[in-house]
């Protein structure tokens, strides 16, 4: 088995990455690709799960494709039968099927044929309590709509559609925003016994099994969650109208998200949120979302430090980002840290896409973000900035604490931007622990308000980089 480079070796290679350049000649900079060799190693390590040829059609277990009859029992019975017989494929043939939560088992591929639409119940009482999380804090809450807990070799595949049926009447209004259907006098997640109570329980060290929420607390379930799983595949599906986060690999290893289309514009509708996860490949996907397209996370505040699992070795390639708060994002729930993220050959373009690459934390979260490499990216339009690094992020009141976040070793290479929004780079770090080593190599940004606005950033280097037609010089420190 191939071994990954140590972090110290990786940092050294980062320092010698650029081997030669010639700005006067206009030639592209030649860059040492040692970090990208690590990406190739990750791709080799992540294996697609393999399944037996045994097929179990849910109609054989009583499923009815009328869009009205509940098929929760039929689908889960088919999965259990498949598992008991050594695994295989649970087939859902064309039609509309209403269902409650679906729980996956070892060695089972849940396959949605073309023309399938799974309509998930909007009755919260249909979703029993399981161990899950909400915004980076573990808890006992509603089961995700599709859930795999401590499973291996699991998949959801096919050309069908998963429809969470989230809208301003179902699920979304729980966030407490009038934009999503909430009205004065209605309950919401911000009520004292709900989200804030969960966060305080975590800070007080309450055991996860004693953080019991669910009915009456208005904390929405994740859509597809793989919790402590190994060898996971989700491929070719279309996922729409999620209650909350869409695809959530949690404490999982060797995860592939391939060819998935996410169209979901509700609150907190992140497209894919790898959290405390390692060896994750997201490729050939399209994200059109109400929040971040891809957001790499590692827990909130004290709960993230308690778990202490770094999210690492994550590859994003050949994807398209449309609407969203950010294309590829690290944070904000990032207390255990993120490292070794590779983004290549992606297209990002929408007047409703705020940033291309985004890193966000604060001094309650802390965490280290390091070794982020981005290359061969085409950006049509972003609203705010191409690269946004915000170490003072906060949307829930005072977010200051004693855990200063650290960001280092960020490289954007071979990036073209037609309309860069307000800033090429918008970055704010701490004086006590500045952002370190941000490199723009062979980058061209057009139609941007200001090249950059930086505070407490040490080591910003522009190499063969043009902003608004001007060859950029690295700031003198």
Protein described:
The chain is globular, with a radius of gyration of 22 Å. The strands form five sheets. The chain has a 23-stranded mixed sheet that branches. Strands 22-25-28-30-32-34 form a six-stranded parallel sheet, with no helix packed on it. The model is unreliable at 1-6 and 8-27 (pLDDT under 50). It is built from five helices and 37 strands. The chain is mostly beta strands and 477 residues long. The two termini are 43 Å apart. 10% of the residues lie in helices and 41% in strands.
Features:
about 10% helix; 23-stranded mixed beta sheet; single chain; 37 strands; about 475 residues; disordered N terminus; mainly beta
Compact overview of the structure:
With 477 residues, the protein is mostly beta strands. The chain contains five helices and 37 strands. The two termini are 43 Å apart.
The total count of strands amounts to 37
Compute the number of helices.
5
Termini separation: 43 Å
Mean pLDDT: 94
Q: What is the CA-based Rg, rounded?
A: 22 Å
What coarse outline follows from CA principal-axis ratios? globular
Percent in helix: 10-25%
Class per helix and strand makeup? mainly beta
> How much of the residues is beta strand, in percent?
35-45%
As residue ranges, the low-confidence spans are 1-6, 8-27
Main sheet? 23 strands, mixed
């Amino acid at each position: 088995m191939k071994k990954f480079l140590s972090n110290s070796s990786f940092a050294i290679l980062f320092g010698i990455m650029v081997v030669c350049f010639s700005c006067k000649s206009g030639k592209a900079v030649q860059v040492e690709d040692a970090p990208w060799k690590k990406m190739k190693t990750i791709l080799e390590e992540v294996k697609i799960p393999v399944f037996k040829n045994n097929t179990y059609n849910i109609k054989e277990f009583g499923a009815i494709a009328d869009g009205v009859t509940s098929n929760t029992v039929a689908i889960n019975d088919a999965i259990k039968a498949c598992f008991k017989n050594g695994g295989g494929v649970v087939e859902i043939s064309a039609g509309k099927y209403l269902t409650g939560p679906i729980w996956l088992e070892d060695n089972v591929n849940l396959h949605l044929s073309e023309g399938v639409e799974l309509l998930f119940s909007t009755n919260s009482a249909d979703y029993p309590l399981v161990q899950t999380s909400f915004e980076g804090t573990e808890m006992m809450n509603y089961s995700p709509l599709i859930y795999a807990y401590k499973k291996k070799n699991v998949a959801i595949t096919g050309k069908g559609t998963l429809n969470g049926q989230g809208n301003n009447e179902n699920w979304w209004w729980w966030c407490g925003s009038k934009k999503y259907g909430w009205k004065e006098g209605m309950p919401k997640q911000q009520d004292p016994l709900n989200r804030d109570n969960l966060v305080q329980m975590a800070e007080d060290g309450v055991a996860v099994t004693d953080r019991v929420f669910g009915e009456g607390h208005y904390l929405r379930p994740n859509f597809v969650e793989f919790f402590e799983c190994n060898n996971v595949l989700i491929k070719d599906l279309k996922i729409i109208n999620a209650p909350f986060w869409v695809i959530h690999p949690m404490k999982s290893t060797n995860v592939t998200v391939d060819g998935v289309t996410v169209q979901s514009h509700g609150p907190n509708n992140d497209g894919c949120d790898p959290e405390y996860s390692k060896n994750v490949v997201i490729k050939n996907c399209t994200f059109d979302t109400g929040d971040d397209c891809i957001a790499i996370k590692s827990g909130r505040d004290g709960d993230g430090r308690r778990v202490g699992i770094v999210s690492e070795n994550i590859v994003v390639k050949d994807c398209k980002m449309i609407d969203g708060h950010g294309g590829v994002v690290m944070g904000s729930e990032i207390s255990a840290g993120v490292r070794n993220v590779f983004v290549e050959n992606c297209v990002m373009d929408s007047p409703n896409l705020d940033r291309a690459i985004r890193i966000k934390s604060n001094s309650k979260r802390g965490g280290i973000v390091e070794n982020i490499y981005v290359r061969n990216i085409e950006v049509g339009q972003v609203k705010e900035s191409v690269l946004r690094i915000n170490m003072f992020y906060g949307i829930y009141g005072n977010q200051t604490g004693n855990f200063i976040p650290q960001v280092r070793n960020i490289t954007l290479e071979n990036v073209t931007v037609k309309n860069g929004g307000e800033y090429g780079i918008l970055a704010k770090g701490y004086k006590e622990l500045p952002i370190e080593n941000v490199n723009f190599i062979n980058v061209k940004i057009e139609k941007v308000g200001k090249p950059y606005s930086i505070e407490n950033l040490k080591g910003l280097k522009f190499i063969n980089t043009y902003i608004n037609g001007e060859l950029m010089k690295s700031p003198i420190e």
